[in-house]
Structures are given as C-alpha cells and as structure tokens.
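Think of the structure tokens as a kind of shorthand, similar to the way a musician reads notation: each symbol stands for something richer, in this case the local conformation of the backbone. In the example below we present two proteins back to back. Begin with the first one, reading the sequence and then the tokens, and try to describe in your own words what changes along the chain.
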Amino acid sequence: MDLMSRFRMYPTPAQHVALLEQCRHARYVWNLALEQWAMWTRDKGPTPGYVEQSRQLTEARHAFGWLRAGSQTVQQQALRDYDQAVRSFYAGTHQRPRWRRAGLHEGFRIVGPQASRTVAVNRKWAAVNVPKVGWVRLRLSRAIPNAKSYRVTRDRAGRWHIAFAVIPRPIPAPGTGEVVGVDRGVTVSAALSTGQLLTSPRLSETEQARLKYLQCRLARCCRGSNRRERVKAAIAKLHAGAGDRRKDWVEKISTDLARRFDVIRVEDLRITQMISRPKPKPDPQRPGRYMSNRRRAKAGLNRGILANGWGALVCRLEDKAAGRVEKVKAAYTSQTCSVCGHRAPENRESQAVFRCRACGHQAHADVNAAVNIAAGRAVSARRETPTRISLKREPQLATSV
C-alpha cells in the first residue's frame, strides 16, 4: 500500500489562487462523475466509464473556457481516481464514493513524469513544478523520495501540503522474542504490558479556553459573514495544531514499539462502529417525542476516542511492523486477572484500579488488560474461562509521557 511523505508548501498569493482553481476543477469533475453514477436506473443502461467520461471531458473543455483554463492532467486524474474508487467500492475494500465539498476536500493528484519535477534550492527549501501553477516552494523537512505521484492538499487552517506516494521499508524486528500488548483507552491513550502508560498530547488549558471563547463567538456570527470565516479559520488552526502533535506522537510511539518488540498484540476494535451516533428512541407515551439517548455523553466519548488516535496508532504499527502485529479479541480483557485468570466485573473497581477478588492481585486496570492482550488471552462471548499463559517478564508499573 502506498503511503505518503508529506511536506509543507508555501505558495505565493498568485499561486494560492491558481492552486484553489485546480482544486475547484478536480472537485467539479469528481462530483459530476458521481452524479452520473448516482442518477443511474435500470432503464437507462450502464453508466459511462472512464473512457466515455474522458471523452465527455474533452468536449466540455472545448465548450467551456473556464474549464479549459485548468490543467487537463488534473481533471483526467480526478476521473481516474473516481473510477478506482468505484472499483474499490464494488470489490468491498472501500466505502462508497462521496461528494466533495468546497473548503473540506481541497486537493488534487498528479501521476506520471510530472510528479518527479522537483528541484532543491538549498538545504532548507525545494521547489516542485505544479501544472498550470508553476514552481511552488516547499520546506525540506526530510529528503524528497523518488515517487511517481503526489497529492496537493489544503487543510481547514489554510495550509498547503504536498504528499509524495512512496512505499517505505518496514522496520526490522529486533530478534529478541519479546511480545508486548497494547491496551487503548480514553484516559490513558495506550497502556503497554510492560507497565508503561502513554498519553497522546492534547489541547492545553489555554488552548481549551481559547477554543471555548471562539466557539461562543462563532455562535453569534451571522452565516456567510467575513467575521464568521475568520473565526472558523482560528478554530481550524487550533485543531490543526492538535492534530499535528497527535500525528507526531503516533509516529514516535509506533517506531519505538516496532524497534523494541518482535510481536505487537492489540485489541481488535471496530472503531467506526464505536464512534457512531446513538439512534433516537421514540417515546411510546408521547407520540412524536423522543426519550433521552445520552447523545451528549456519547459525543464526548467519541471525541475522546478520536483524540487518542486509536486507529492511527494501529495503522502505523501495521505499516512499520508488517506481519508482526496481531489482533486479539477485546472481550473481558479488562475484567480478567492476568495472574490467576479469574474473571468478574467486580475485579475492576474503577477506571484505573484493578483488584482480583480471587487472588488479591492489584495493578493498574489498563496494564492488567495489556498483559492479557500480550498473552493472547481472548475470552469468547460464551464466557469461557481462558487458560493461563505465563509471560517471560512480569510487568512493572511505570509512568511516562
């Protein structure tokens, strides 16, 4: 699977306008192809494929000057990307293609010889040749890989990035035979079976206060006003900073685990289902009304799950430690004693305290669950008692950032 080596771009004001125009053209072509697919009915015959849509794009470029002013490479690549998205959807590997919105999906992709047109200016700066835009500067945070495609994107904070598609080499196993279990949580982002507690960086108290202030201002702004756009940009800047720190934390932790352990075992969690919205509960006594479904509490839990980077951590572990990541069923791992194997809901006294009612073993609740995961101790839904599996090393409680 292709991964991305991303760099920050610094376009000039004129290049900024040209890049937005290319994003607008790519989004228009994508949505137009999706509209043809969405309006399909059995009596209309098959929907046009990439070849037919490419022919229609050529006719549209001859008819409309604003479309002809854009890059044909960008527009045709948007059709190729859409065709691949439909194929992946029918293959069952990806979700259904969705509409692309202005301000949310700003970007386009370049594939072919043009993707390798990069020039190093000095040790800190380089330039890439973007079709119909020119040479755009980018910051050299690492060596530019030899890639055959790249994607230009703009986030909500207004920052431009270029990501080169490369296949990085996996990190070799240390060969020590060590096995580690990783338990993911909301309060503690990741607890290791070695006793190490890891917490993902989050918004500071000052940033949380400013975010609350900006959200109050946003509620008072008129829709469509310039002030509302400025407030939205300030909020996006705060979230972008938090997202960058979280990605940096995921990269460092995944690299450290891949270098230290031969086998990494994690919980097999369905995060998409876990962060879904609760369904409304109709009130049988009051027709047309609904009962409380604790949606505010669920929304807070969803934010906590997303802020801890559960999915990103496992995804990067699978990339860096290919073939060495094992997923264990998460059922009852937090209620089972890692010493005697006794399982009971009363064993977990609180979010952080685990005390076995049978043998009296006491440990951090998340570390105890991580030890069960490291031992491959999975309990099925039939409430079977797991067999006791000894570990080579007993975990020692230790705190870290």
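Once you have a description of the first chain, move to the second and do the same.
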Amino acid sequence: MKYTPHQYQAFATERILETPALPLFLEMGLGKTVITLTALDELLFDRFEAKKILVIAPLRVAEDTWSRESQKWDHLKHLRISKILGDRKQRERALKAEADLFIINRENVPWLVGMTGNKWPFDTVVIDELSSFKSASSQRFRALRRVRPLMRRVIGLTGTPAPNGLMDLWAQMYLIDRGERLGTTITGYRDRYFTPGAKEGHVVYEWKQKKESEERVYEAISDIAVSMKAEDWLDMPERVDRIVPVTMDLKSRKQYEKLEEDLLLPLVGGDIVANTAAVLSNKLLQLANGAAYDEDRGVQHIHDGKLDALEDIVEAANGHPVLVFYAYKHDLERIKKRFKQTKTLRKGADGSKDIADWNAGKLELLAVHPASAGHGLNLQDGGSIIVWFGLNWSLELYQQANARLYRQGQQRSVIIHHLVTQGTMDEEVMTALQSKAAGQDALMDAVKARIERIREG
C-alpha cells in the first residue's frame, strides 16, 4: 500500500528526525507506528544517523503490530525485523540476527540490559507506550535508566502520558532527557511540584499537586514534546456510548447487600488507606459482575444479570462481531460457558492469526482483558460493537481499550455498551469514567461513600 502521510504525520516524522530526545504524545488512532517507522527508515538508510535500533513495546504489540505495519506500507517492506521474544535461547538468537529493527517486550528489558550491560548495542531506542515506564521503582525503568547514557536517540510514544496525574511524568521524561527538564530525581520532582497529602508517620501515601504545577510541568517539556489529539486531525465516525442498566432479582439483591455489608461494616468509623480501598473495590466490582472468589479461590455465584444483558446485545448484533472486555477470570469462564462461540486472543503467531480472523469478520464474539489489549492492537476492520462486561478504575486502560475499534480506519459508527449493575460499585466507576476522574482518589471516595451508607443504614 502506498503511504501518503497526513499533514500531522509528516510533521511528527520530521520532529523525530530533528530531535534526538522526543516524547511523542499522539492520541490513539493517529498512526504513531507508521510515523515512527518512516522516520527510522530515513535515519537508517538516508541520513545514516542510526545503526542499530531497538523498539520496546507491550508483548502483543511486539509480536504483531510493528512487523505488520512494516509489511503494510510499500516504502517499509524492505525493513528486516528481529523479535527478541520467547524463551532465553530464542531471545539470544534473535539478538544476534542481522536486522534493521530489533523488537522486545517491555518485561524483558531487565534481561536485555543484564545481557549487554556496558556493551549496550542500540544507539536508537523507541519506547512504544512510554507511559508503561511511569513507575520510577519498577525494574524495567531502573534497567533502562542504567543504559540511557549509551543511547544517542530516544523516542517515546504514548497517547496518555499522565493517566493518573503529573506524578506519572517524571520517570517517562527522565528516560527521554535524563532529567534535564523535570529534574534528575523523583524526590526533587515531588518537592518542586507536589505537597504531601495523607500520611502515616513519615510515610506519605499520596501527593497532591500544587495549583500551578500542571502549567509549569508542561511548559518545562514544551520545547521537545509533541502532543496531538485525534479530534483535531481526523474525521472520526460517530461514537455512541450506552449505559445498559443491569438489575438483580430480589434474592440476588439481598445476597449482594449482605456480602457488601459484611465487607464494609468492620471499617465503619476507621481510616481507609489506598490498599484497603483497592481490595474492597475489587471485591465489590466482582459481586457487581455476578460472581466473586471466596477464600479458597472458589467462585461464589451471585447473579446472571450481566450475562443476560450481553445475550441481548449479541442477539441484536445479528452476527456482527462483538468485542467484550471482561475484568476477572471467572467473568471469562462464565461468558464462555454461556456463549460457546467466544474466542480469546492467544499468544505469539496464534494471536496474530486471531487478530487477522477478527479483522476479516470471522469471529462473532471476542473476549479480551483490557490490560492485554490496551495498546497497539488494530481491530477496527473487524467490528464496531464493544461491550464492557466488567469496569475498572483505570481511565488509561478504558480509553486505550476503546481505541482498538474507535480509531482511524473505522468505517462504521462505534457503539460502546457499559453493563452497569444498579445499586453497586459499578455506578461509581461509570460516573468517574464519564467525568474522566477515574483513579485512586475516585476509588477512595467511592469506597468511603459506600461505607457511610452502611453506617447510616
């Protein structure tokens, strides 16, 4: 296929060529992979400014997306790609291959750094989904930080650089510019732009950003950051968001309310910390979905309301492909039991075939966990119907998952169904997602509000 770049794509490619350290904040659907590949091709074969290139990506993206994009466009088909994936021997063999681009999944970055150390061979590094390096304490960040001085050029790609607030930005920007703009330590960054919030003794559980911090932080990185929104550049199809109310029968309702009360009553009058709130919210969301794990990891059945609602949607789809996002393993098991046609994404070459089958319209019902399909999977050719069977508090996962269908190239209106069990934690999560306030603060507030209702009841 001949590549005729949009104006914004040509601009972004030029910025990559001109800027040795570049964070490219491109919203989903803008074609960041072909933009970057076009620039890398020129750096390799026209400008001779790159010799050995590494792309770090989420596993499924590393397995499928970059190689598929390179074969899609005529001007990129000559690129030789080696995937540093699989077991140790396979990775070592791929690392020694003759190739133009080497691709590795982010989980294997510590292994690669350990293997190469001071002999790090890659002068150019692309970090696809830079936001997955937002934790300064993670092994992947610490490993990449160690070899950052050995890189001449770094390109960071993400559509959501700060999904949970400005605290997420420091580690990402450090990998880009080695602390030139936001400081060389996370401690200094916190002191400059945040104030301590909830704490116990000397341990601070949350940091609140100062009033002027957002403006100051983005001003500090504005000289190199490129930020683009899809709505400013693309004529996107219509997106229809539906909330599908799920009601429980009287028996199930009483069972749910008893379980919720048993969980929350011991905490009435006490202080709630983030970890406790997360555990409670997780349990309540399981109950809202219709089942929950007990202490022995058995599954306790509550209701089938969401399965019934999903059945109505599948029937109304009349054979058109439906993409279902589930939250828990028992959700998937119950979905597969009710809907025998359910398929899931496998790993490796099998996963690439699953994606191809979906895009060819061969899969009627594809069940995916949003964490495994949040980045880089192009599924827009196969369907336009999404069902959120189970909701979660991550705005980033929510937006990225929806963008698998609602993106450039989608030809039909996209309908996103949210199954929301009435009177449960589902309603709090849905409200937070709609207001783009989902995250730890919203989670804490929701759990506290439910505890207060138990106390007043």
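Compare your description with these statements about the second chain. Residues 233 and 385 are 24 Å apart (CA to CA).
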